[in-house]
## 1
Amino acid sequence: MRRYIDFYLAAMKISILQDFQYAVAQLFYMIGMLVEPIIYLVVWSTVARQMGGSVGGYTPGTFATYYIVWTLVRNMNIVFTPYGWEWRIKQGQLSMELMRPIHPIHSDVAMLAGMKVVMIAIWLPVAAFLTLFFKPEWNVTWLEILVFFFAIWGAYLIRTMLLSMLGLITFWTTRVSAIFELYFGLELILSGRLVPMSLMPVWVQNLSVYLPFKWTFFFPIETLAGNMSPAELLSGLGMQVVWILLGLLGLNLLWKVALKEYSAVGG
Amino acid sequence: MPFSITISKLSKHYKVPEREAGLKASIASLFNRKYKTVRAVDEISFNIEPGEVVGFLGPNGAGKTTTLKMLSGLLQPTSGALQVMGFNPSKRPYEYLRQVTLVMGNRNQLAWDLPALDSFELQRAIYGIPSEQYKKTRDEFIDLLELKDLINKPIRNLSLGERMKMEIVGALLHQPKVLFLDEPTIGLDVTMQRRIRTFVADYNQRYGATVLLTSHYMADVEALCKRVIVIHHGKLLFDGELAGLVEKFSAYKTVGVTVADARADLSRFGNVVAQDGARISLRVPKAEASKVTSKLLSELQVDDLTVEDPPIDEVIDHIFTAESVAG
């Protein structure tokens, strides 16, 4: 355990140092990422005003809250994508990582966790600007803040497991973009990334409860932006734990099979 | 003493799709895909003693890197058995990965934007190296490779040779007992190649490490390896001392002769391959070398005469070319 803590601290430090080297680039990257939520926010705020002030219980103020928290959650659940797996296999980087006495997933989790420290530092002024501009309605309790803290890391881990499993497909073939795109399409609709889940048809909402996507976007956003009861907050965290454990199990099983297929094509 | 590396009838076969060029063949392959089996490594066997430095030679595509990848646990063999320090690399146990290293001349594992010292610190954490041992080994390697002035520069600002030296330090910080070196000097100038060779030799002496080295630079092999294993088309061609390789595969000897009359025509004695004033080099079939030297001495006024094996590069080239023709 001590070895892992030592590794995580060292890897996160390296990641922070690297990302600070390119802090300005990271800022522009984040500004680029703002386009998506701002479009959603403007569209839904306009719809809410035209519907007499609210739609599905969301006012322009609560939409602003939702999409400002969205920007942080989106940054927090950036993980190593299947495209990254494809790249590192082709470049031969994965072979070098496989020679280490530590699972490459630990490296991914630690490196991207370090990056998030830098992202949060950059996000704070961006969020302040968005708050001034879009006037969100905040109604937050200490419990919600505490749950949000765990929920964003939970979302990060669930997404890591899911996208790593998808990434492992590249052990069989290095041309699987179509499958990845299908995944991202499903995630867009069923996670709350495109629109709050409560605005989706009831059958979609019901379906989303049994799938992992909602727990990576809508749940962490709503812990801060919504009005969830303590029971809903805790059961949401419980669902995240379930998906993390299922992801771990799936990843472990798939990893064992995938390693036998690894052909180290890139070196 | 048990062997450090044992390989027995090791094979790696790949099934690769095969189709002819053109749209018609492309559409047909959607419904009836054809495959062929490529025998990248085909039933090779050898043992390596602890502390041995062995050159692993072969032309591109011979199966060297595939063998190294199986030994390092990256690839699963199709058949056969292999053991390294008593471990089965395919199972990738922690204790095994902790004691080996794979250095590939064209791959980097140090963080591009940071000074090497930061990456070394990550290596320390990955391998769980005790702090004292880490500092001692790191400083020792930095001294040996004369890197002191470079350790605070980002890797991206270093030359290829400097980067390679840093990569080697990073790869050996955990003091591995087995080194798989795949073209570690590729693309480097001769000075840098020599520096790295000396370092590898020194590491082998100091830590008694077993080294399996592939290189297209015969100078690396001559400087480091007494024993060589030659592989071609996935099959083992030779396993023995470097001198034995020349003895077995060289069809020629080089006769160097310094004659009193520089204008003398020596083509009747053999193939004149070089002439520098009165010094002439002749290539003659090995079986005729003694006859030719006697003839030279009896028919010409000879000031100096030497009989040498051809350079190792030439021998290797001859083996691979002959095998390609045969294969």
## 2
Amino acid sequence: MTKKQLIRHSFIKSLPVLCSYLFLGMAYGMMMAEAGYQWYYSLFSCLFLYSGTCQFLLITFFSSGASLLTVALTVLLVNSRQSFYSLTFLKDFNAMGKRKLYMIHSMTDETYAVNTTLDYMPEDDKHSTMFGVALFSHFYWTFFSVLGSVIGQLLPFQLEGVDFCMTALFVIIFIDKWEQTDKHSPALIGLGVGVLCLLIFGQNSFMLPALLLSTALLLLITNTNFGKKDKDAEDENTENKTDDKKIEVVTSPEDIINDTDTGAKEEHKI
Amino acid sequence: MTATPMTPLQMVIAIVVSAVITFSLRALPFVIFHGNRKMPKWLERIEKSLPAMIMAILIIYCLKDIGDNMFGVGIPRLLAVLITGGSYKLWHNTFVSMAAGTLSYMGLLYLFSHVLTIA
């Protein structure tokens, strides 16, 4: 393909990301403005952090003055999934020379989903398209976030309640995750420990203990026999309750990897 | 921990720290695996179950202050969560559900905190 064709192809491939980032970026920018933060904070975050969920969370962390430890641990756990995305692209990114670092930086849920669909192309074209999709996507996110910030700052009235888009996003991802599996103990641990810690530690300091405690609990139940028995029992329960739902039995590591790949592809059409 | 907002310098530090952690996470497999895709079993299991748990905690985080003003903020937010979740269950369209949830929240917030309190 010629350079022009590649740019065109990348642009077409990036269109789903455009739809997603148009809305999310504008929402993020407006939420920043609503919270009283200038557009250049949005610009800085979009260029260097480039992680939707974390950027949304940071707004509330800014306003509540969360400790740096809370910020760091939350980002670590929230974005840990992106390590798993990288596994898919080890070979591709390693073959991309100077573009490798940018590809790593610009890998998000959305670009991951798009870039896993390009295997039909010859290697070189595929890599150029991946790079193009990454550039277009980063541009959309930054552009619409800053645009949202500026519009939010210029509006003569308050966009009271626009911050709900963050909650909506989390609810949607949660439902996706819930539907992808029949083992709901992790989700229930999150809800249970979250509420418990909120009651014990209060609004301003419950995140850190909640994240630590639930991660510890999750490690414990997924890696002990006790946990296995527990989960088997739970599987039976879900089976009884939802006969019509498809039950997937994961048998081999390959299945797990395949399952994860398709799962991640489906989960973020946002 | 008190609820004083961050200073601009603290904000920049928070963004930089988040950026460094995020980049490190994205780059981690390139450092560890060197083209080898095999992961330890326990990591695979965690990978499958961590996101749902984190999302659950984040939802709690978003709803943490509804008790402060149950009528004016709490009820609208809980209703909007139901609208978001319900519409997503129906159509599985992220855009529709986010718009429906956010717009209905803005409407409900106005209704509950301005209109109904006056009446």
